[in-house]
């Protein structure tokens, strides 16, 4: 056994001391909670140490053999000792038996919800359901519908008055319809002043004035002020004599410099009057005006003066008014002129995104749907508002995920294309709505607005709307369907107009059959062409 400090069993003086040390140390085995203080004696000559704690050693070994004890007992001086003490912690004891299981602790607080997992694969297409009942039709014509027209449940649009009738019931059409025209909008802001009109004809000569006081000579007229051109410009009189010929005199009104005055104005991005920004500048050629600070100058009669506008950062030049109009200004100084130059702040453009189901109910925006802008600055969701240079061309583009289509744009944008372009002349709020379905663009050619011949799809008739991005030639409707829908298109020639007959299908259908079936695995386009003459179909 080894003891810390300067004591080991090999260094004890005798077997008695060894036994005492072993007895004492053995009594401490298993105690590891706190250190134990040991008392002993160290031999001065050898440096060996023996233990005294808790022992019953016989004298004189029960205490240190100090010099006085050695002398009194006539012992060998080589046995002289001095008292010492040290702390010693024993080894850890054997592990005790496991205690009884304690009570279950209280339930901890609920952890944070984990991140949403990735979208799962699209399931297999289900079986095709039974054919639905025949839908209703939306008819149209000029004037109110006749009682014999249409079936119960149908609607009718009076294209002359823009009025919707329906639905038709067993008693016939409603006596009055619903106007499709919204209320009259507010009166717009006043436009800028128009350009100056042409000069009117010269008025009749006035009555002769009273006789003057007389002049001593014609030379007295020289240098007097004069006013010509209907008062548009002034000058001074000059006299010249023809001494070589008729000896006559010529009196001329020589025009003086004509005044050009420039006034600066400013609007913010919404078109509201605001303070003229620092750095807004109008200069002239020929030189004379650099406004601010020099906003007025005189120019020789009939001189053409060109003004140039410089807009500071955050603003654009909106145009001139007064003696000039539009984005540029060159004015002839045939008289005094006044021009106003207007600067406008860069507009802020915002976009809002929405999504809906085929039944018209709102739903969450699909993953991957993004609206970006050109010039760059907008990436919505995320950055849905940005400022663009005044009068710049802005294009918004929507990225449409699989199984979705653009239903409509709003604000400065219209239609249902994936892009929208407009000029940023003021703050504008655009919007785009996506619909969960693929688009079937159905075009009917060869029928006039009053004809009732048309093509009817087997499902989705309540989702008709104009495909504005395909143009307004003929009749183009957009209908939306779920992935995998099987749509049967049925042509219905106008029985009342026997010369208007079906010609053929084209696009994603072909031939002349009465029906055409389209599976909505992506966006599709079908054209039904009617023609005057013999029907080429069955």
The end-to-end span amounts to 116 Å
Q: Work out the helicity level.
A: under 10%
Q: How confident is the prediction overall: mean pLDDT?
A: 79
**Rounded to an integer, what's the Rg over CA atoms?**
53 Å
**What proportion of the residues form beta strands (DSSP E)?**
35-45%
| Class of secondary structure makeup | mainly beta
What is the number of helical segments per DSSP (H or I, 4+ residues)?
2
Largest sheet: 5 strands, mixed
Question: Which residues form runs of ≥5 with pLDDT under 50?
Answer: 1-32, 449-453, 494-498, 534-538
- Principal-axes geometry comes out as flat
Number of strands: 35
Note down, in words, how this protein is organized.
With 538 residues, this protein is mainly beta. The chain has two helices and 35 strands. Strands 19, 20, 23, 25 and 27 form a five-stranded mixed sheet that branches. A hairpin with a 5-residue loop joins strand 19 and strand 20 (362-363). The N and C termini lie far apart (116 Å).
């Amino acid at each position: 056994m080894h003891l810390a400090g300067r004591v080991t069993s090999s260094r004890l003086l005798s077997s008695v001391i060894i036994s005492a040390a072993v007895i004492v140390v053995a009594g401490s085995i298993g105690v590891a909670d706190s250190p134990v203080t040991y008392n002993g004696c160290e031999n001065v000559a050898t440096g060996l140490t023996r233990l005294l704690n808790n022992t019953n050693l016989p004298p004189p070994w029960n205490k240190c053999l100090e010099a006085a004890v050695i002398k009194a007992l006539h012992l060998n001086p080589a046995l002289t000792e001095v008292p010492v003490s040290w702390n010693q912690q024993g080894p850890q004891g054997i592990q005790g038996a496991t205690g009884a299981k304690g009570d279950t602790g209280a339930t901890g607080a609920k952890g944070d919800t984990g991140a949403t997992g990735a979208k799962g694969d699209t399931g297999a297409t289900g079986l095709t359901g039974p054919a639905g009942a025949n839908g209703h039709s939306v008819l149209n014509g000029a004037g109110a519908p006749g009682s014999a027209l249409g079936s119960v449940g149908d609607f009718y649009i009076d294209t002359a008055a823009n009025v919707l009738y329906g639905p038709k019931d067993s008693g016939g059409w409603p006596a009055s319809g619903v106007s499709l025209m919204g209320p009259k909008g507010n009166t717009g802001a006043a436009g800028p002043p128009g350009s100056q009109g042409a000069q009117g004809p010269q008025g009749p000569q006035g009555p002769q004035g009273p006789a003057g006081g007389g002049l001593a000579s014609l030379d007295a007229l020289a240098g007097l002020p004069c006013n010509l051109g209907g008062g548009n410009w002034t000058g001074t009189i000059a006299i010249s004599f023809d001494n070589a010929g008729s000896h006559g005199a010529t009196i001329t009104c020589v025009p003086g410099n004509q005044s050009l005055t420039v006034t600066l104005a400013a609007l913010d991005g919404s078109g509201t009057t605001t303070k003229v920004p620092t750095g807004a500048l109008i200069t002239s050629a020929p030189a004379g005006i650099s406004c601010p600070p020099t906003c007025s100058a005189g120019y020789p009669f009939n001189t053409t003066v060109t003004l140039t506008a410089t807009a500071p950062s955050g603003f654009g030049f909106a145009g001139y008014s007064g003696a000039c109009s539009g984005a540029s200004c060159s004015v002839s100084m045939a008289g005094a002129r006044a021009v106003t130059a207007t600067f406008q702040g860069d507009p802020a453009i915002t976009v809002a995104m929405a999504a809906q189901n085929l039944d018209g109910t709102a739903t969450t925006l699909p993953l991957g749907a993004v609206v970006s802008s050109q010039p760059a600055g907008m990436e919505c969701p995320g950055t849905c508002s940005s400022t663009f240079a005044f009068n710049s061309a802005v294009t918004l583009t929507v990225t449409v995920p699989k199984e979705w289509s653009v239903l409509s744009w709003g604000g400065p944008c219209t239609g249902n294309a994936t892009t929208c372009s407009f000029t940023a002349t003021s703050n504008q709020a655009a919007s785009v709505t996506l619909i969960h379905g693929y688009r079937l663009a159905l075009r009917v050619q060869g029928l006039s607005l009053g004809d009732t011949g048309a093509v009817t799809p087997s499902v989705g008739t309540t989702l008709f709307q104009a495909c504005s991005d395909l143009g307004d030639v003929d009749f183009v409707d957009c209908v939306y369907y779920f992935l995998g829908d099987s749509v049967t298109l049925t042509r219905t020639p106008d029985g009342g107009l026997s010369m208007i007959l079906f010609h053929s299908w084209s696009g994603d259908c072909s031939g002349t059959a009465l029906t055409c079936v389209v599976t909505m695995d992506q966006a599709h386009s079908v054209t039904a062409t009617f023609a005057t003459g013999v029907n080429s179909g069955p």
